[in-house]
Specification:
Elements lengths: L8 E5 L8 H7 L1 E5 L4 H4 L5 E4 L7 H4 L10 E4 L10 H4 L5 E3 L6 H17 L1 H9 L15 E5 L3 H12 L3 E5 L4 E4 L3 E4 L2 H9 L2 E4 L13 H6 L5 E4 L8 H9 L5 E4 L19 E3 L10 H18 L7 E2 L4 E2 L7
Parallel strand pairs: 1-2, 1-3, 3-4, 4-5, 6-7, 6-10, 7-9, 10-11, 11-12, 12-13
Antiparallel strand pairs: 8-9, 14-15
Length: 332
């Protein structure tokens, strides 16, 4: 394989599947491919790392102890970067972390709408009756006029809010700063007003990043504050939710159901009670995976690689202390 003279050394972390634009990447950088097992040998001395396999805990233990051997740039093929917020990376002013913000917004919003409809219309129950060849007419719920609280006001949360408003739902947001007049959420709640919003919401949709501030933010007290008969939808990160407390609130019937695409441990252990609970939809972290998504992820990285080589500002620079991209650092 030939490489451009003097090209930066790039390590691409993968799990068997390479980016679809691998040849274009190789023309811009001296590229080596590493599995999680190979990463400790190949990461030291690299100029940049492309975490094409992004749901991984392998980067932290492979990170070189000598800062001089650490890469200057890490790009993650995902919106969430929580596995990469380890001290050596976060504390280094010389390491830039970028993510794939913008790729998943519309796909996840559509998925959330599908989940809300599936819960309201009890599609899982219909499929189970079909499997048993049972004819069971029954009423279902409308979603028009119902209230959704979207917890997480980044681009994915905004896309979800717009999608749910489009089908006639009343939408509010939950975020770090309370405000009125938001173009997508109307009202954004925090603190004391959040408890009131939880008590009024028919659906609570989680789309927040996982950071030290949001870890287990949906705990037993938050679940108890939710409206009786409400439903929880999580397309953010599994660590946002105390799953044991959620299972208890579902088992006692206080909550009507949940649609969960992300979990504290993935794959979800077979012993988890969430698999078999009535009114619960389990999906394997696929809300954003639609036709062409890998190409979109790879193209975003390729654009950033060109920027890196040319010394231009990178897209989606993560604030490593906060764990997400500030609006001013997103670029397009």
């Amino acid at each position: 394989m030939s490489h451009p003279s003097g090209a930066d050394r790039l390590v691409v972390l993968h799990r068997g599947i390479l980016p679809p634009n691998a040849e274009s990447i190789e023309r811009l950088a001296d590229t080596v491919y590493a599995t999680e097992e190979e990463l400790p040998l190949l990461l030291p001395g690299a100029d940049a790392v492309f975490c094409w396999h992004s749901i991984t805990s392998a980067v932290a233990p492979a990170w070189p102890e000598d800062p001089a051997l650490a890469p200057g740039w890490v790009h993650v093929a995902a919106a969430g970067v929580d596995p990469f917020l380890f001290p050596a990376l976060v504390d280094s002013p010389d390491v830039v972390l970028t993510n794939s913000r913008g790729v998943y917004d519309q796909a996840i919003a559509e998925y959330v709408l599908g989940l809300v409809l599936a819960l309201a219309k009890d599609f899982p129950g219909s499929w189970e009756h079909q499997r048993r060849r049972e004819w069971r007419p029954r009423d279902s719920e409308r979603i028009g006029g119902r209230t959704a609280l979207v917890w997480g006001t980044g681009p994915i949360g905004r896309a979800i809010a717009r999608m749910l408003r489009a089908v006639g739902m009343r939408v509010a947001g939950a975020g770090r700063t309370a405000r009125d007049g938001d173009p997508d959420f109307g009202t954004v709640h925090e603190g004391a007003s959040l408890r009131t919003a939880l008590a009024e919401a028919d659906y609570v949709v989680l789309a927040a990043p996982l950071t030290p501030a949001t870890l287990r933010m949906v705990d037993a007290s938050v679940l108890a504050a939710m409206k009786p008969g409400a439903r929880l939808v999580n397309v953010g990160r599994g660590g946002l939710v105390d799953e044991e407390a959620l299972a208890l609130h579902l088992a006692d019937g206080r909550l009507a159901g949940a649609a969960l695409d992300v979990f504290d441990r993935e794959p979800l252990p077979s012993a988890s009670p969430l698999w078999d609970m009535p009114g619960v939809i389990v999906s394997p972290h696929t809300a954003g995976e639609v036709t062409g998504w890998r190409g979109d992820l790879a193209d975003l990285f390729l654009d950033n690689l060109r920027r890196w080589r040319e010394g231009r500002p990178l897209r989606n620079v993560v604030d490593k202390e906060k764990g997400y991209v500030r609006e001013s650092a997103a670029l397009t």
